[in-house]
Design a protein that fits this description.
Helix content: 10-25%
Order of helices and strands: EEEHHEEEEEEHHHEHEEEEEEEEEEEEEE
Low-confidence stretches: 237-270, 402-411
Number of domains: 2
CATH superfamily of the largest domain: PPM-type phosphatase domain
Distance between the termini: 45 Å
Number of helices: 6
Length: 411
């Protein structure tokens, strides 16, 4: 049995927005739950930034799990603070996160953690909490305040907590936000986890059941659960991975230290790439002119990030495989006709801070795919078309009145 992972989230019964986010990639052995802080839009932004950083963790056995996860959380903090500097209205936003990565053979799991999201291991010996809540002392009957988060400017020393735990086939690992563990009593939650393991429930059934428990208990907060049933797992191939490391010029030093220009597997191709393996960034530079009928394939577990670009020229089709992501952020779309994003089930497309001046963004999202739209400005009612039964999250998608002014991109 291979790793079986699934995620479920719900805004809860009293909240109008969901500031939680998650990462669930069984093929890469990496999972995370992130809880955004800062209220409404800002919390969602911080959580999305953290998940994006974690999604870039390289799928290479040579890099220790604790090292890459801790580095991803440090990168997430830097990006969150940079975004707050860029937009003062987001000052104070942050996120708490728990992330795990299975090592080769699936017998050990590495964890990196900040805040009060949690990780539980459910084994033959019972239920054990793998993470430690980073909270201040509660007073006056109020909930304990989070003492560390990814938006804090005053963090010093080793503020990311890491650990390793041995796991066995059939064990369950659960990641969750405080919308579960603060709402469902500990004894009740532990009893249910033991039962779910004994009945060999699937990861999807486990995540669904735990979210339902939180809602049945009142659902006062966003609740997110990632459940993993442990099975066989192998990360990449040693020789192939070493060759990839050599190609991208990574230096692996003693004690697991490493140095990469920019961010692990990031690259800055001169134009639209034909294929994306790992993480490819098309970062802020001169306007990106797309040649006619360009096609890009984002392979499984790959991430294509187009940031701070003005896209013009011919049509572009991006094919996003299962488990892969395409992020289009802080950009202007001015193509001749269409940017087509064709998602596979379990693929993700994120468009944030996007202005569509010319052409059309057409997203094909089958059931199981995820589309996230945040701060989109449309030139006309037909500028954005979404087809299919995928999960679509919209926030601030609006049509401008009158002609659009000429614009440039501000990364």
């Amino acid at each position: 049995m291979a790793l079986d992972g699934a995620a479920r989230t719900h805004a809860g019964k009293t909240r109008t927005t969901n500031e939680d986010a998650w990462l669930c990639r069984p093929a890469a052995g990496i999972f995370a739950v992130v809880d955004g802080l800062g209220g409404e839009e800002a919390g969602e932004v911080a959580a999305a930034i953290a998940v994006a950083a974690l999604s870039e963790v390289p799928d290479l056995p040579e890099l220790p799990g604790e090292t890459v996860l801790a580095q991803a959380l440090r990168v997430a903090r830097d990006r969150i603070l940079d975004e707050a500097d860029r937009d003062p209205s987001k000052e104070g936003m942050g996120a708490v996160a728990t992330a795990l990565r299975f090592d080769d053979a699936g017998q050990m799991v590495s964890i990196a953690h900040v805040g009060d999201t949690r990780a539980y291991l459910v084994s033959a010996g019972g239920v054990r909490q793998l993470s430690k809540d980073h909270v201040a002392e509660a007073s006056g009957g109020h909930k304990a305040r989070v003492a560390r988060d990814l938006g804090r400017r005053d963090l010093r020393g080793e503020w990311v907590e890491t650990s390793r735990s041995r796991v066995s086939r059939g064990d369950i690992v659960v990641l969750c936000s405080d919308g579960l563990h603060d709402v469902v009593p500990s004894a009740e939650l532990a009893e249910e986890l033991v039962r779910l393991r004994a009945e060999a429930k699937t990861a999807d059934a486990i995540a669904t059941r735990l979210v339902a428990m939180a809602l049945a208990a009142g659902g006062p907060d966003n609740v997110t659960v990632v459940a993993v049933r442990v099975g066989r797992f192998r990360r990449g191939g040693g020789a192939k991975s070493r060759a990839k490391l050599a190609r991208i010029g990574v230096l692996i030093a003693v004690a697991g230290a490493f140095a990469v220009g920019g961010w692990w597997l990031s690259a800055r191709p001169g134009g639209v790439p034909k294929a994306v393996v790992g993480v490819v960034d098309v970062g802020p530079s001169k306007p990106l002119t797309v040649t006619a009928a360009s096609r890009t394939e984002v392979t499984p577990e790959g991430v294509l990030r187009v940031i701070g670009q003005r896209l013009d020229g011919g049509d572009w089709t991006v094919l996003v495989a299962a488990g892969a992501s395409f992020h289009l952020e802080r950009s202007v779309l001015a193509v001749d006709r269409d940017l087509v994003v064709e998602l596979s089930p379990a693929a993700e497309f994120l468009a944030r801070d996007l202005r569509i001046e010319a052409g059309r963004l057409r997203v094909l999202a089958p059931d199981g795919a995820r589309v996230i739209l945040e701060h989109i400005t449309l030139a006309g009612p037909d500028s954005l078309v979404i087809e299919g039964a995928g999960l679509v999250s919209r926030h601030d998608v609006r049509l401008t009145e009158g002609p659009l002014p000429s614009s440039s991109v501000t990364p």
